[in-house]
Design goal:
The protein contains eight helices and ten strands. By secondary structure, it is of the alpha/beta class. It has a single domain (4-277), classed as Purple Acid Phosphatase, chain A, domain 2 (4-Layer Sandwich), CATH 3.60.21.10. Strands 4-5-6-7-9-8 form a six-stranded mixed β-sheet. Strands 3-2-1-10 form a four-stranded mixed β-sheet, with helices on one face. The longest helix has 17 residues, at 163-179. The structure holds fe (ii) ion (2 copies). The site of one fe (ii) ion (FE2) has 6 residues, from loops.
């Protein structure tokens, strides 16, 4: 029987991770695959990966991670910010891959019907470390600790003045779309960054959390009928239950991370979980 699966943080710039993607196959014909961001940095790597997966899975749904949004000097696609995101969406359309700019698809298989809502809401520096009461103070604490996310160098917010301003616009757009869903709609919310702060509490460097989400999405799983939330970014694969809703982190992560575990990275994870599966 086919199923609804999620994976993220494929980071195919690493040859071992690219080999992992080459070996990825659906468990059953017709499986859907949610790709929750951080496929890679180079535009052509993202395109290769999504083309490969779209040729194997029934439906592929993608949301951007911070790495897809980086503009690096060695990438022939030099677009920045919103323009880069729009170019990625256009590429996905050519492959038949669904994005946060498309009508939300409905999974009708086992555990359905559920509306799969790919989101792109970014972060706004509100997951602040203790002792910081605003973004400037949070950033200062991060700089003092030597923990500054590389996004500050490569993730341009153009045409927005800041990444948090881009996040404001994304939250407004996304809330409007989610509010349009008929009441009682069961959803799977997909976002690269966690929608709640709890998963970031175990970060080795708490200063890093400010690049990991927004306090403004904390109740979205309740407000918008989620039966599951799928995210990545933290490279800490696990499931946290909040208000009876599983928040499923589906990352593969860097080779140096998955090699530390006893096993090679697992395949895509089922995202429609019963409480006893957790
Ligand atoms: Fe990642
Ligand atoms: Fe990420």
């Amino acid at each position: 029987m086919s199923g609804l699966y999620g994976i993220s943080d494929l980071h195919v710039g690493f040859p071992d991770n690219r080999a992992f993607v080459e070996g990825l196959r659906p468990a059953s014909d017709g499986d859907w695959l949610i790709v929750a961001g951080d496929v890679g940095e180079r535009f052509s790597d993202v395109e290769w990966t999504l083309r490969t997966l779209a040729g194997r899975f029934g439906t592929v749904v993608w949301v951007p991670g911070n790495h897809e949004l980086w503009t690096t000097k060695d990438d022939p696609v030099s677009l920045r910010g919103e323009a880069r995101y729009r170019r990625l969406v256009e590429m996905c359309r050519g492959l038949g891959v669904l994005t946060p700019e498309d009508p939300y698809p409905v999974w009708e298989g086992e555990g359905g019907p559920v509306t799969v809502a790919p989101l792109f809401v970014l972060y706004d520096y509100t997951f602040r470390p203790d002792g910081a009461s605003n973004k400037e103070e949070a950033l200062k604490l991060a700089r003092d600790a030597g923990i500054v996310c590389t996004d500050e160098v490569y993730l341009y917010p153009d045409p927005y003045p800041t990444r948090d301003a881009w996040c404001d616009a994304r939250i407004a757009y996304t809330e409007r779309r989610l509010k349009e869903l008929p009441s009682g709609t069961r959803t799977v919310l997909v976002n690269h960054w966690p929608l709640i702060r709890e998963p970031t509490r175990v970060l080795w460097y708490p200063e890093f959390a400010q690049w990991c989400g927004s306090e403004r999405t904390a109740d979205w799983h309740v407000r918008f009928g989620a039966v599951s939330v799928v995210y990545g970014h933290l490279h800490i694969p696990r499931t946290i239950w909040a208000d009876g809703v599983p928040h499923v982190e589906v990352s593969v992560g860097y080779p140096r991370e998955w090699r530390k575990r006893d096993t090679a990275p697992g395949g895509p994870r089922p995202v429609l979980l019963a409480r006893e599966d957790a």
